[in-house]
Amino acid sequence: MKSITDRLNYRRKNFVNNFIKNGGNATKAVKESGYNPGGKGGKDPDASARAIGSELLSLKEIQDYFELLASGAAQRVEDLSITARSEVVRLQANKDILDRAGLKVGDKIDLTTKGDKLYTNEQIQRAAAEIIHRRGETDNGDTSEE
Predict the structure, then answer these.
(1) pLDDT (tens digit, 9 = 90+) per residue, 11-22?
(2) Where are the alpha helices (DSSP H) in the chain?
């Protein structure tokens, strides 16, 4: 059985690639992909391009090709989130993964307050060290605080 890339002719593959490249404009993708909207009959080229684009987008083989490209793109984003040299690229890839999963990442997340009082990182670290220190005393049988 032929693979999906073998089943699509050049113009259809070109249509999909142009559709993705231009941000999802089927009419523009038709015109950029070698189709002749309007033909020799003097029809409205934009209306014909819209009709051709709609027909192409409804084809199972076009939809399968989109899925193939999407799965590859998702894998590349996942790979970038782990292996990119730049921390900025890794962060952006992870944000993209979360966004696609429906989890919108805010610009800033405040984990230090519930509207009461803001603490500096240094204050939080000191408080955490104090808690750890107290637990160590309790675990060693020291009950002098009770």
Answers:
(1) 999 999 999 898
(2) 4-7, 10-21, 26-32, 45-58, 60-83, 87-100, 121-139
* pTM higher than 0.85: no
Could you tell me if 77 and 101 are in contact, meaning their C-beta atoms sit under 8 angstroms apart?
Answer: no
Task: Report pLDDT digits (tens) over 42-95.
Answer: 678 888 899 999 999 999 999 999 888 887 877 888 888 889 898 888 888 888
Give the tokens for residue 30: 């038709």
In terms of residues, how long is the chain?
Answer: 146
* 62 contacts 74 by C-beta, under 8 angstroms: no
Catalogue the long-range contacts made by 7-15 (C-beta closer than 8 Å, 24 or more residues apart): 7/61, 8/61, 8/62, 8/65, 10/34, 11/35, 12/56, 12/59, 12/61, 12/62, 12/65, 13/65, 15/53, 15/56, 15/62
- Check: CB of residue 50 under 8 Å from CB of residue 27: yes
What CA–CA distance (Å, rounded) separates 95 from 87? 12
Contacts of 27 (CB under 8 A, 6+ apart): 46, 49, 50, 53
